[in-house]
Specification:
By secondary structure, this protein is an alpha/beta fold. It contains 14 helices and eight strands. An eight-stranded mixed beta sheet has the order 3-2-1-4-5-6-7-8, sandwiched between helices. The N and C termini lie far apart (55 Å). Bound molecules: ligand FVH.
Amino acid sequence: MSDGNGSRAPVTIIGLGAMGTALAGAYLAAGHPTTVWNRTGGRAGDLVSRGAVEVPEVASAVAASPLVIVCVLDYPAVREVLDPIGAALSGRVLVNLTNGTPAQARETATWAAGHGVDYLDGGIMAMPPGIGTSDAFVLYSGSEDAFVTYRRELELLGAASYLGTDPGLAALHDLALLSGVYGMFAGFVQAFALAGSENIRATEFVALLTPLLHAMLADLPNWAERIDSGDHTTGVVSNLGMQATAFPNLIRASRDQGVRPDLMAPMQALLDRGVTGGHGKADLTVLVELLTSPAPTKGTPA
Ligand code: FVH
């Protein structure tokens, strides 16, 4: 939002960890008057030399701008910082880019509404060096007014997607996306450990792993089609029964090689549940349904 004379809206950033520092840097680079506050002082040196104003009191930081962005470690930290200054935040837009759960986002939105604060929750889908580049995107939910009013400022951080008025939606999407990422990281860890157990250098092995993962990723839209349609059995080329038979080899070989199979064991349990539940001929996508249905108790079918 500009004042019509082209001057930039003042922005306050609360939290100067790796991410908060990157956020503040993006606003400085775009010419916004930027006020910063961090629990531990002395972290704003570079930002101050670029024009940021560092203030010692969080209430003064909030008073400096109509748009306040908080990005600290977790939601308990958000509340620790903001609870005492609800009155100072009143009438302002608060954008919370701290990682948390949908329930925490909704609770914080309720707290904000009780103090007359226009609340937008967000999930940053980028690492700090990606902020302000075309690689970054940020998910938002909560106050649509806040999103529309400050869309231009939010776009400075990365592509901005508004998901709806339920403040928990951004956190839900964020955590679902991170589940995909961490599932992949778990696979990376296991793959490099198993290859490394025979002294295969990671830099050689990655040349094999990367194209395989690209091929698997190309199949992801087909997964999505199956999941949305609920049809897990038409045109299956790699059925669950076959995979449940091959997968234990991965666990056995890991043990034989002195590599802990802990990261893979839950997948084995789910595959086995699919087979005992009669889904051996189905695609792996059926596991999504098994994951969202209660685990069977002993003696009952899956
Ligand atoms: N960095 C990343 O790659 C990811 C990318 C996606 C989004 N996440 C989330 O962003 C939040 C902040 O992450 P961060 O990388 O800035 O984290 P740190 O560098 O560890 O800095 C933590 C800041 O939080 C402040 N803080 C912690 N506890 C409190 C508290 N009780 N009261 C006030 N501030 C607190 C800490 O302050 P200080 O220790 O310097 O005094 C830092 O400013 C996070 O939710 C990620 O999941 C980052």
